[in-house]
Amino acid sequence: MYIGRFVILGRTAAGDWFLGYRVSSRSFPNRVIKQQGDRAVVLPTADAPPSDNPYISYNCMRQHEQVVVVANGSHVDPTIDKVKIGYPLRDAMALSLLAMDYEHDSYNTPRISAGLDRAADVGYLGIVADDQVSVRRLNISPGEAMLIATYEHTVPTPISLSGDTAKALCDALFECEYEKPVATMVVLSDGDALKVASRSARE
Questions:
Q1: Rounded alpha-carbon distances, angstroms, from residue 153 to 136, 137, 146
Q2: Model-level pTM?
């Protein structure tokens, strides 16, 4: 099944929170995810054909203090900007999704995001589509994970991912059942630290 891009909110078997993001694409497979300081970025590969599509390159993960957000587009930036000036994570996600709206491409592709407030021990999945706006706090038990995707699974949906490190979870996300993987990243809350791993098919 092809479900497009999707974000993950989950916990390892030991109870550690993690967020994940997978680029899955039929149209733009020549992309990678690179870690750059406090963020991860989706970028075209050096051999990618030129494109004026504004949706193929963006920050897909940002963090600020105890808050981490992953998303399928540039709405990750205003979300973190709002957190920085004091908005609760739920409000920051909802306002940014609503303000930027779904992608006005030929598919009306939804914008999706996953957020984690480590200090409050809560996580959220959010989406804005042409028929809905939703940000939901989810109760995730150890060993469980939920995804929300641009196609098919546009409500929180269980996914089985095994691993207790960022790299293992990143590999599991890349290799999971859904079609057309291009690149993945996972950020894992490991005690006081955040561990980030990424994997791209074209590297």
A1: 15, 17, 10
A2: 0.94
- Amino acid residing at 118: R
- Contact in structure between 17 and 189 (CB atoms under 8 Å): yes
Contact 200, 24 (CB under 8 A): no
How far is C-alpha 164 from the geometric centre of its chain's CA atoms? 18
Q: What is the residue-averaged pLDDT of the chain?
A: 92
In one letter, which amino acid is 61? M
| 3-class DSSP state of 172 | helix
For residue 6 the two structure tokens come to 């999707």
Residue 188 to residues 117, 168, 178, 196, Cα–Cα distance (Å): 12, 11, 22, 6
Instruction: Please give the domain boundaries of the chain with CATH numbers for all domains.
Output: 6-200 (3.60.20.20)
Query: What are the residue ranges in the chain where pLDDT is below 70?
Result: 52-56, 203
- Sheet with strand 58-64: strands edge to edge: 31-36, 39-44, 58-64, 67-71, 111-117, 122-129, 132-138
Distance of CA 8 to the CA centre of its chain: 6
Give the type of residue at 202: R
| Non-local CB neighbours of 30 within 8 Å, separated by 6+ positions | 44, 45, 47, 48, 49, 202
